[in-house]
Amino acid sequence: MNPAAKSISNIPLSVLDLVPITEGTSPSLSIQRSLDLAKKTEALGYNRIWFAEHHNMLGIGSAATSIIIGYVANGTSKIRVGSGGIMLPNHAPMVIAEQFGTLEALFPGRIDLGLGRAPGTDQLTTHALRRDKISGGQEFSDQLDELRYFLAPGFPGQKVRAVPGMGSSTPIWLLGSSGYSAELAGRLGLPFSFASHFAPEQLMYAIDLYKRVFTPSDVLDKPYIMLGVNLVAAESDEEAEKLATSQIISFLGLLRGNPKQMGPPLESLEGHWTPMEKAHIEQRLGSSVLGSPSTVKQKLNDFIEKTGADELIVNTMVYDYEKRIRSYEILSQIKKEAPVMV
Questions:
Q1: Residue ranges of the domains in the chain?
Q2: pTM
């Protein structure tokens, strides 16, 4: 028997919130709902809630990620609040050090700084963000070094300081959907979060690479991996599959270069996508978990056993806000009732 075996019952569960702006709603309402979601998932025992930096997307309201984090942290008391992530090449590292140093000063011990290297948008918007389209994310490692320098304790004679920021204890995570960030996180001894909710084909490779090159640091003495999961938990498999059609249609719009606000679920996806689009989306969303409580429990435990995840961060994208809350309630109940695997 192995009482230490990982399962949904004994690893932390967290929330990824893209602040969805659904059809018929407004950014204001969506942001208010994000605070409500944070309060409810905090009460349910979720470990952290993260917000992602995306730009020029009509259906996502978290572009000003640091502001959202401050708003949600101010309205909660225990749950960790952070970025999943800040796209560092879009910003001057000193500015991010100041922003998250300020957040840490306001909400000590509750802020996470998750970092990615993609633009989080299209090429035209990348240019509008004043990001260098040639270097792109290739200088990410140097930018990370600069950010960590500004967050480190100051020293005599230091000419440029991030205030607040200098000496901040804000944890840094590296995020990724390929091997690049996995290797960098491992070599630096940082926690790593993999975007298996939209890049499952690289999942096991990235996990293996991260663990293989991991070097203990003053942050971690052993690897720590959090994995993204698209989840729709409902009263039945059929209901969950129907609710999930809203996210699929949204993803289809993104694939076609025409991102839209998320609409109501469909009775059937027949005729809404080509066979090639269907195959592509099914591959990209291959780690999604949909179903009734018993189905979700089995699929998540299988996923945890396969990957050895230390934590899961769950993204529930459904049109009906109450159904979204219900999905997180069901998952919380599954966790409380699930026996420890042996």
A1: 13-337
A2: 0.93
Q: From start to end of the chain, where are the E strands?
A: 13-17, 48-51, 80-87, 111-116, 172-176, 192-194, 225-233, 289-291, 311-315
pLDDT in tens, 117-166: 886 567 777 778 766 654 444 589 999 999 999 999 999 999 999 999 99
> Across the strands, what pairs with 192?
174, 225
- Rg, the chain, Cα only: 20
Q: What CATH code would you report for 13-337?
A: 3.20.20.30
Residue-wise pLDDT tens digits, 293-308: 999 999 999 999 999 9
CA dihedral of 136, 141, 145, 151, whole degrees rounded to 10: 70
Q: Render pLDDT for 249-292 as a digit per residue (tens, 0 to 9).
A: 998 988 888 888 999 999 999 988 999 998 988 888 878 999 99
Tell whether omega for the bond before 85 is within 30 degrees of 0, i.e. cis: yes
Six-digit token string for 138: 């290739």
**CB-based contacts of 262: which residues, under 8 Å, 6+ apart?**
20, 21, 22, 23, 59, 246, 247, 249, 250, 317, 319
